[in-house]
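Ops channel
N.P.: pipeline sanity check, posting one input/output pair.
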């Protein structure tokens, strides 16, 4: 007979004593449980003791978290959090350097526990930490433990970052600005400031003033990867907290210092593989930089603006310079206006009598005008060739430069997500972005010439305009998906992907997606499905057995804490636990936490997950919701919450968990994999029927012949 749900079988250890095996009654007050344990070991003053996990983060057991104790858990009897907090509070004030250092080291470890952290903060422990930092001159191990303890205590959000004193902040800043400081101290100092910057405008301004961009660039150029990462994290935090004007000023300064070229050479093309967190910061830096175009993209042209009118006129003058000069001195005002309208018509403006009207649509707004002017000034020969070549074609076959430029700018804004908020987890940056100044404008220059090339290949007319731009969008997105490392390589690849290649790719994809619709083939597909679905199920379970590294995202979106989860080889237990950075496939024995598959009751995804409901839904980033899932277990009382690193991992894990729960696999990846496997299997099965048409209905079975007789007459046996 199984034990009652409110009774858990556990072991309790104590140094120098024989462990106790007890049945923990969850309905019994924890104080009574502790008294029984202490009495068994003849220990007085049970209130001075507490229970603590022996593995993982060694969390203290309290009335609020005791429900998480599982059968077979091993606990330790240790000093209670309030006693330990009192002891360490005294220890960090000791005049003995060794005692003080050991106390700070222990404090940094225990501060991860919320119960201990609250006890220590209630004793005004943070004030003592401030004193050690503000008044101390140590820059080595002791200071590193102090800052680590401070970070862990602040992580629990009991105290606001705005309460930090200017003296404390300036001391932290000094560690960053000094050269002769231990690297671990500088890393922690950068982390402190990174967490501080988003909390208030006042703190942002203080950090921006005290830590110069030059100093951050110095830290970016070191060989220590962790220090480099923390410097990048602070730089990104400053950029995200800045106003539009401040962000523009900061990005201009970084451009002057050639930060893109440095990142391209020393980080992206470093001998060391790029860490996920650094990839995310590079994505954010790219996104912030491209979003500087948003203001121009959302601003319509003002026909009364002298500056904007001059930019517009410069397009005409560059293309038709000699004609314009002749017209200026020879014709009347009305005649000049007529000539200008004719030239704007040749440039491809729809409203050629008033071309400003074409630029009233926002987006792309003035960004399209900026791109056209950049193209005309930086590649004048290509610009003149584009315009003059098309103005000499028949009216129906001319490619309108201005109209194409406006639509192409809008397409590039959509592909590059200009004007959209940064994702909190994405890592998809373009390496070529960091190898080129004026990336957006240079990309436009390549793509507008691609428009003209594709237009000619398609022998397009004005009626085909949308069709041509749709092909160009496909050419750009397909080439960007290859992640070219430079614009030159992008140019080579996108020009090689001509219209005929696009048609071939579309045809191939269509054949893959739309297998022949003959009834016998459809019946064969249905017969093959169960076998192939079972193959997919086995692959999903195998992936769960290999395990995946997940990141924890706290309320301040820090992603530096990792945990690993994997399924046991017999598919009966889910093992998980915290791991250190750099550990990619920990052995199953090193993962302390367990969930029996038999206890799993339900899989939740997206906004139904508890860890998504806890956070403000208004601030939730869409892609985080798309990667979130949770397992409910033990009569739906507890949840294990996940945020998948990628959509691919999300699909594999949710499918695998559904298989364990005996449910259908529902992810889009299942359908994709099934289609691929069905396509391959059908092609193999139908290989012998190539070039043979398959009828929709089977041929009729002929009638048996009149003399058909399978009966053997035993009466005529041989004598």
């Amino acid at each position: 007979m199984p034990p009652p749900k409110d009774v858990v079988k556990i072991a309790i250890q104590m140094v120098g004593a024989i462990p106790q095996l007890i049945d923990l009654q969850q309905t019994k007050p924890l104080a009574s449980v502790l008294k029984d344990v202490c009495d068994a070991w003849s220990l007085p003053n049970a209130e001075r003791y507490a229970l603590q996990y022996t593995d993982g983060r060694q969390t203290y057991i309290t009335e609020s978290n005791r429900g998480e104790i599982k059968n077979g858990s091993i606990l330790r009897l240790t000093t209670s959090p309030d006693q330990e907090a009192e002891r360490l509070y005294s220890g960090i004030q000791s005049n003995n350097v060794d005692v003080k250092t050991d106390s700070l080291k222990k404090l940094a470890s225990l501060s991860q526990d919320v119960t201990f952290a609250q006890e220590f903060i209630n004793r005004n422990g943070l004030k003592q930490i401030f004193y050690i930092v503000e008044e101390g001159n140590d820059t080595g191990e002791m200071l590193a433990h102090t800052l680590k303890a401070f970070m862990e205590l602040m992580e629990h959000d009991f105290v606001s970052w705005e309460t930090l004193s200017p003296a404390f902040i300036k001391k932290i800043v000094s560690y960053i600005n000094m050269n002769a400081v231990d690297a671990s101290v500088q890393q922690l100092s950068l982390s402190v400031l990174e967490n501080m910057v988003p909390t208030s405008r006042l703190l942002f301004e203080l950090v921006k003033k005290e830590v110069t961009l030059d100093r951050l660039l110095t830290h970016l150029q070191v060989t220590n990867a962790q220090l480099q990462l923390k410097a990048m994290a602070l730089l990104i935090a400053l950029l995200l907290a800045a106003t539009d004007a401040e962000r523009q000023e900061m990005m201009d300064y970084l451009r002057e210092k050639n930060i893109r070229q440095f990142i391209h050479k020393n980080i992206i093309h470093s001998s060391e593989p790029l860490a996920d967190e650094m990839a995310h910061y590079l994505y954010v830096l790219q996104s912030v930089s491209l979003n500087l175009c948003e203001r121009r993209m959302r601003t319509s042209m003002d026909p009364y603006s002298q500056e904007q009118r001059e930019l517009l006129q410069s397009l005409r003058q560059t293309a038709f310079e000699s004609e314009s000069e002749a017209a200026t001195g020879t014709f009347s005002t009305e005649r000049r206006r007529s000539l200008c309208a004719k030239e704007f018509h040749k440039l491809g403006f729809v409203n050629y009598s008033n071309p400003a009207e074409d630029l009233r649509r926002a987006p792309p707004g003035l960004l399209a005008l900026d791109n056209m002017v950049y193209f005309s000034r930086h590649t004048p020969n290509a610009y003149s060739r584009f315009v003059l070549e098309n103005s000499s074609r028949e009216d129906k076959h001319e490619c309108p430069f201005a109209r194409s430029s406006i639509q192409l700018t809008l397409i590039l804004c959509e592909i590059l997500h200009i004007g959209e908020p940064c994702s909190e987890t994405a890592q998809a940056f373009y390496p070529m972005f960091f190898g080129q100044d004026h990336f957006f404008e240079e990309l436009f220059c390549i793509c507008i010439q691609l428009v003209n090339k594709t237009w000619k290949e398609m022998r397009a007319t004005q009626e085909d305009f949308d069709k041509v731009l749709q092909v160009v969008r496909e050419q750009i997105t397909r080439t960007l998906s290859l992640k070219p490392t430079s614009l030159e390589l992008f140019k080579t690849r996108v020009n090689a992907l001509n219209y005929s290649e696009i048609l071939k790719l579309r045809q191939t994809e269509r054949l893959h997606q739309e297998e022949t619709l003959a009834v016998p083939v459809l019946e064969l597909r249905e017969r093959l499905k169960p076998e192939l679905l079972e193959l997919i199920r086995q692959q999903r379970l195998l992936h769960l057995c290999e395990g995946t590294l997940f990141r924890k995202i706290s309320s301040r979106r820090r992603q530096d804490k990792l945990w690993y989860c994997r399924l046991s080889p017999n598919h009966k237990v889910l093992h998980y636990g915290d791991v250190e950075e750099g550990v990619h496939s920990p052995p199953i024995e090193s993962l302390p936490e367990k969930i029996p598959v038999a206890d799993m009751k339900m899989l939740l995804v997206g906004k139904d997950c508890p860890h998504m409901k806890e956070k403000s839904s208004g601030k939730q980033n869409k892609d985080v919701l798309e990667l979130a899932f949770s397992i409910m277990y033990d009569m739906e009382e507890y949840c294990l919450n996940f945020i998948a690193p990628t959509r691919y991992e999300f699909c594999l894990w949710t499918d695998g968990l559904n298989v364990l729960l005996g449910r259908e696999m529902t992810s889009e990846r299942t359908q994709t994999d099934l289609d691929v496997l069905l396509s391959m299997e059908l092609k193999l099965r139908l290989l012998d029927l190539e070039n043979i048409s398959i009828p929709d209905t089977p041929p009729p079975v002929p009638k048996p012949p009149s003399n058909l007789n399978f009966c053997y007459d035993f009466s005529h046996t041989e004598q």
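N.P.: looks fine end to end. Residues 519-546 form the longest helix (28 residues).
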